[in-house]
Amino acid sequence: MTALQTTDPDIHQEFIDGNFVVNKNKIPFCAIGVDHALEHINCIMKITGGLVGITQNASARERFFLTAPELSRLAEEAHVISASPTATCKEHHDLSLAVWARQEKNIAQLKSVLQSAINPMKYDGEDLSNIITKVVMQIDVCNQDDIGQQKYIKFVEERINRNEVSI
């Protein structure tokens, strides 16, 4: 990669121009990095049960990794040919009316909580509480190291030193 400018100037210029992402569909602003796209392919292969049971067999593993990306591509082409909804979607899934309505509802709920409750940025109290549910965190969470040590000492004393409780 350090010699890319001299070994392959066209590829180097593409990188300089910012063309190092993968577009999996025609929805604008949905490009992902190459490493992320490879993770998508790996995920597709795992979801179909491809990697289960073959990791110990070198020959099966090699055949799988040679054929799985091609099978994934063929499956995607079948979706396009059959005009499935996932292949014909023209906008990002977060722009749907249902997602938008849920987000607006959540924003309104958060605003009402922040207006009716204490300002979390100016709170000087000793208790740590959830601003949505108003539940106060138990002090046990803050002292978990001490409580864990005490429970360990009690466990050893009862089960090993005095043999009062069977292990």
Protein topology:
Blueprint: H1 4-7, H2 9-16, E1 21-22, E2 32-33, H3 34-47, H4 58-81, H5 85-88, H6 97-116, H7 139-142, H8 144-161
Antiparallel strand pairs: 1-2
Main features:
mainly alpha; 57% helix; two-stranded antiparallel ribbon; 167 residues; 2 strands
Short description:
The protein is mainly α and 167 residues long. The protein has helices at residues 4-7, 9-16, 34-47, 58-81, 85-88, 97-116, 139-142, 144-161; strands at residues 21-22, 32-33. A two-stranded antiparallel sheet has the order 1-2.
User: What is the number of domains?
Assistant: 2
Beta-strand proportion: under 5%
Structural class: mainly alpha
Question: Alpha-carbon distance between the termini?
Answer: 59 Å
Number of helices, counting only DSSP H or I runs of 4 residues or more: 8
Radius of gyration: 28 Å
Give the ordered list of helices and strands.
HHEEHHHHHH
Largest sheet: 2 strands, antiparallel
Q: Tell me the number of strands.
A: 2
The general outline is: extended
> Which segments are poorly predicted (pLDDT under 50) over 5 or more consecutive residues?
none
| Percentage of residues assigned to helices | 55-70%
Average residue pLDDT: 78
Biggest sheet: strand arrangement: 1-2
Can you walk me through this structure?
With 167 residues, this protein is an all-alpha fold. The protein has two domains: 4-88, no CATH class; 97-161, no CATH class. It has helices spanning 4-7, 9-16, 34-47, 58-81, 85-88, 97-116, 139-142, 144-161, and strands spanning 21-22, 32-33. A two-stranded antiparallel ribbon has the order 1-2. The longest helix has 24 residues, at 58-81. It is extended and about 70 Å long. The mean pLDDT is 78.
